[in-house]
Amino acid sequence: MNLRLKGKKVFITGSSSGIGLEIAKKFHSYGSTIALNSRNRESLENAKKLFSEPIEVIQGDMTSKKSAEEAINKFVDKFNALDILICNVGSGRSVPPLMENISDWEKSISLNLFSAINPISVSINHLTRSEGVITCISSICGDQMIENAPLTYSSAKAALNRYIINSSFYLAKKNIRINAVSPGNVLFRGSIWEKKLKENKDDVQEMIKNKVPLNKFITPEDISESVAFLSSPISSSTTGQIFVVDGGQSIN
Questions:
Q1: Distance of CA 156 to the CA centre of its chain
Q2: DSSP 161-190
Q3: CB-based contacts of 109: which residues, under 8 Å, 6+ apart?
């Protein structure tokens, strides 16, 4: 299928590793012009080496509105437009349910909500000019109770989902679409699930067998294909949607 992404100018936040890096590779394979982003300069330089041609890297912390604005402006200065914004920054690492303190809440809300709202808010004018697209990475934790998922993470993702749904009404008036991909249990190097498999492989495999009808982990490749589809002109009539990719876990 031709997703008509060739030449699209795409900024992917949190894209030096994991899901974000896979998304960047996917857009690059479709012929898009991309820029990688991370707070960490070393991780960006390492990620850059994984591409066969020079790739723009833009250091910036999306939990800071000022830093997000500087990063977006640098991208637009370089490429003269912003067509697609992918908000990938996030983390499910937090304390067990009912063990939270205010610091845990602030950190999770910053990483999983403000990290999307900041780059979106400073990109609206650019995306209005290009009739652009925003796609965020959420989680099934934001839609339903997932046992042992941190309350901080689940609540922040729920807020992100509500923001996407509500803002889509107003962004549509500016010819901007916004959606989210909501993954289940994503396994990749450095992920929480890689750590859990090392610590207790039998329990994790039993959980996947009992909770996930397709009996599998989700891969970054699964997520990147969904993000590319939602961000492409093929999905031009889709906005305000939370697209679940979880192996059927949420139907239980």
A1: 14
A2: HHHHHHHHHHHHTTT-EEEEEEESSB--TT
A3: 152, 155, 156, 159
- From residue 178, give the alpha-carbon distance in Å to each of 38, 105, 168, 170: 22, 26, 6, 10
Exposed/middle/buried for residue 250 (C-beta within 10 Å: 0-12, 13-18, 19+): middle
Give me the pLDDT at residue 189, please. Answer: 87
Query: Residue 67: which of 119, 17, 15, 135 has the closest Cα?
Result: 119
pLDDT reading at 1 higher than 80: no
Q: Which amino acid is at 169?
A: F
Residue type at 185 in one-letter notation:
N
d(CA 213, CA 244): 14
- DSSP state for residue 41 in the 8-state scheme: H
Beta carbons of 113 and 160 less than 8 angstroms apart: yes
Classify residue 10 by burial, with Cβ atoms within 10 Å: 0-12, 13-18, 19+: buried
Q: What is the pLDDT of residues 193-229, one digit of tens each?
A: 898 899 999 999 999 999 999 999 999 999 999 999 9
CATH class given for the domain over 9-190+218-251: alpha beta
pTM attached to this predicted model: 0.96
DSSP 191: S
Q: Which residues of 176-213 are buried (b: 16+ CB within 10 A; e: fewer)?
A: bbbbbbbbbbbbbeebebeeebeeeeeebeeebeebbe
Count the neighbouring beta carbons within 10 Å of the beta carbon of residue 221: 14
Spell out the domain ranges in the chain.
Answer: 9-190+218-251
Residue 252 predicted with pLDDT over 90: no
